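Reader question, answered in our methods column.
A reader sent in the components of a multi-part assembly and asked whether the whole thing could be modeled at once rather than chain by chain. We filled in our standard form and ran it. Here is what they sent:
COMPLEX SIZE: two components
ENTRIES:
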Amino acid sequence: MFKDISFGQYYPADSVIHRLDPRIKMLLTVLFIVGIFFVDSYFGFMVTAALLLVVILLAKLPMMSVLKSVRAIIFIVIFAAVINLFFIKSGEVLWSWKSLQITDNGVHTTIKITLRLILLICGASLLPLTTTPVAIADGTESLLKPLKYIKVPVHDIAMIMSIALRFIPTLFEETNKIIAAQKARGASFDTGGLIARAKAMLPVLIPLFVNSFRRADELAFAMDARCYNATENRTKMKVMKIDWADVVAFFVMAAYFAGVLVERYAFTGIMDGLIFGGLV
Amino acid sequence: MLAIEVKNLSYTYSRKTPYEKRALDNVCFAVEEGEFVGLIGCTGSGKSTLIQHLNGLVKLQEGEVTVKGLKASDKNSLRQLRFTVGMVFQYPEYQLFEDTVAKDIAFGPKNMKLDKAEIDRRVRRAMEVVGLPYDEFASRSPFELSGGEKRRAAIAGVIAMEPSVLVLDEPVAGLDPAGRKEILDLIVRLKEQVSPTVVMVSHYMDDIAALATRIIALRDGKVVADGSPKDVFGDREKAREAGIDLPFAARIADRLAERGIALDKRIITPVELADALAAYRDGKGAETDGASDAKDGADDGSATEGGSGV
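And here is the structure of the entire assembly that came back:
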């Protein structure tokens, strides 16, 4: 029943963005996240939104899949907006009631914070949406390579990560099988109080753990039988290569980042003034 | 009396998504009490989905399933249905969880809310039937048993509910020939002593030929053959169309026929084959009634030995 379930948010499609090197995508995501904290003008947010829109279209993602990740943080966004709206006291007072007051600075900050959070989550969600968990693990390993010089077992960590990811669907399927088997013996998982329910999970959890250990043992044997060892010079089946598309993506993002800095520090407020006139 | 009645049963996985897959398509059959049904079909033919309907593990979409008068669509009798249909899944030993064998077997009866004396009686009886003497095994951990013992302990956990219908999904998967014979003999015993109606899913046609009184074959969610093993395997044309493999004895009979030794097409067990060959040697080869006389001899499970030697 759960064979088709995909782990994580990955949305399979054949696109330029999907094919980008995972390392580049991870670096660019970090650059984007840092960059958006420097954006402080409506013009900047418009450019950011346009950039995101282009990437989403290129990645052939449905809008809903991106907006879904916004839904997860909607409360944080609302909370931040309310706090900012009522607690910023500088600027011209637009509205007040008893000790509460809303100022024009407060309104601007609120809009900007909301935009920033939403764009931030949309941008960050593009990485898991367009990159398989395995590719992310591979990319992480490659990016963490320098840590080898301070004796961090990077390869082992990456191997553990990939194995864990690989077994999530398997364990999920197995859990369902065990639940079915215990239900067939009259177990019920949705009656009784909290403690009764927790207890009812034991007949599922114990076999699941026992089976996981057995699987781990078998996998260790199978790896050993193929002479697996985490030595220096292991090669990969899928070699990650920087492509021209990766170079283009890098330059686009670098240009965006530079543009954000320039706009903020060299032309503070000028673009907003030009576009929105007296409104801002 | 009807033990199982399945009417116009259809089921679709992941409905209304791109992954939609029709697992069962208008399946109809009725099983009388006392029948031993062999459910066959290749992987993905809908066998597992079908048997999970029998005790209400899968929610009905279309059609109706009735077991011993209990409707699977009736939520109030769902628990009762689960206790009426004993379900032994593939690799049942992976569901053991308690710290002693006796406690694990008592899990089902406990869920039935039986009193302590009755639970104890059932645990003892189930252990005796599956061949794990109570005094020796009751207080041992199920995790330290051998593979075959674990499987029998898990089957005992189902039997202790004393279900009137027993459903087994590939009960001999992953066992060695000796373990296979043990479990098959056990199933015959269970049918006699505990659950008079048995449905067994198996890929081993020799086991089906030796044990089943009736075969239901599924393909792509549809019933493609339904009848006695002799009829289903005997009709070679239809069997091939339905994608049904033949038992070892029937394949040998076909090979012999190619070499000019024509035997009865309805030979399905090694014992029948041996009798037919003996009859042929004695000069009655063209006659075909030798096979039907051997039927009684085939029921003792010895036929599976021939199969395991393949």
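What stands out: Chain A has two domains: 13-132+244-279, 154-225. DSSP finds twelve helices and two strands in chain A.
Send us your own complexes using the same form.
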